[in-house]
Amino acid sequence: MKAFKLKEPELNVDNLKFNTKQVHAGEPRDQYGALIPPIYQTSTFYFDSTDAAVAEFGDFMDSFAYSRITNPSQEYLEEKLAAIEHGRGCVAYASGMGAITGALFAALRQGDHAIFVKAKYSGTEEVAEDWFSRFGIEIDSFSAERLDTDLEPLFRKNTKLVYLESPANPTMVLVDIEKAAKIAHSHGAKVFVDNTFATPYNTNPLDLGADVVIHSLTKYIGGHGDILGGAVISNDDDFIRECKLGTLMHFGSVIAPFTAFLACRGLKTLGIRVKQHNENALKIARFLESDPRIEIVRYPFLESNPQYELAKKQMKGGGGMISFDVAGGLEAGKTVINSLKLCTLAVSLGDTETLVEQAAAMTHTMIPKETREAAGITDGMIRMSVGLEDPDDIIADLKQALDKVRPL
Ligand SMILES: Cc1ncc(COP(=O)(O)O)c(C=O)c1O
Description:
This protein is an alpha/beta fold.
């Protein structure tokens, strides 16, 4: 069979801008000259001899031996993600929760203490609240809006990490990552940031002092609602090794080669998609704010947002997520959601389609009402993942649904 000997491109991706990086970082030269790298749909890799196998098994970080640990399709994705998040290393997992638990269990041991921001994804909340005690790990939590006063007193001698999510799901509360990192580092603790809502296009937490960035690739990075994936990115080589040869290899939450391929394909258009999500969401948030039937709108880039200055400092755009309360609480919210024709009632986010859900009735039902309320999740709150449709069509859909609650 015809094969090419193509020289590796002399490209230093570090000097490239975001949109160029997302296209070119991690792209290998294929032996047959294929522009798009093939999917390495294999569970194992062969060796020339037993001696070679022993040498290869010596370090899984640098070789391909078994796809639960490393696979070329997985590796292209990891290189791309590390490049756009300004990290040296990345480990891809089978889902966002795979990445979150992979990172946390790589970092924490029995007898450790961790501090979590109150407003965060319900799955993370459940792991922290219900699972850590089984392993002898203690936790505390603080409110992002009271970071200045509430974080510092929580540190103990055994505090290993501070876990942040910004903007938070579903309340859209931001955490000042730079400030939190300074406080945590002064106590010798690491800072982990779930950057799923912001995306690497809007925020790069490692540049703000964070030590570890986590993504659900299921959302904006995949971008088309057709995969589940997660990733952990860091400049700490030892930590990356602990994730890869520890939680990935032993817990087995591995991203499939085809999924990694789809995530790479999604990644190539991340910048242009998120730029449009930012524009569409701002227009829709402004409409919602102007409508008398809406009680409150939470969107980082609205001037009325109490965290607007922080949003401008830490984000390039406000992102594609909005949450709002319809006047009339749970029932009014349900009427709006059930009357929408274009927007789809579904959990998840970051897709081309606009998705809506009611957190208290759907994604956050497992969280007790008092904990939900303490985290700012009201019963009537609607979370909207603004898609890539024309925003005027979404606004028209919202108007007709709001008319069902009370015509203007
Ligand atoms: C902020 C955030 N982090 C993590 C996750 C978990 O991701 P996955 O569903 O890919 O496991 C989600 C899911 O909605 C999320 O919203």
